[in-house]
Amino acid sequence: MAAEKLRDLSQPIDVGVLDATVAAFFVTGSKEEVLQFLWVLTCSRGSTND
């Protein structure tokens, strides 16, 4: 699953999967979904809480 691949920070980030995920959110996501996605990418990195 793409989300699991992106969350596994012990492995190099698959740029193709990341690009497709970002594109999907910006095309289909509501403003709230896009903002939440951006928060997850920028603020929660390194957090151990799910």
Task: Give the arrangement of secondary structure elements.
Layout: H1 2-7, H2 15-28, H3 31-43
Q: Care to give the gist of this entry?
A:
The protein has 50 residues and is mostly helical.
Fraction of residues in H or I helices: 55-70%
* Number of DSSP E strands: 0
Radius of gyration: 11 Å
Mean pLDDT: 76
Largest sheet: none
Annotation field: number of helices:
3
Give the number of domains.
Answer: 1
* Terminal residue distance: 17 Å
Question: Can you characterise this structure?
Answer:
By secondary structure, the chain is an all-alpha fold. It has one domain. It has helices at residues 2-7, 15-28, 31-43. The longest helix is centred in the middle third of the chain and has 14 residues, at 15-28. The chain starts with a helix and ends in a 7-residue tail after the last helix. The mean pLDDT is 76.
List keywords for this structure.
single chain; 66% helix; 50 residues; mainly alpha
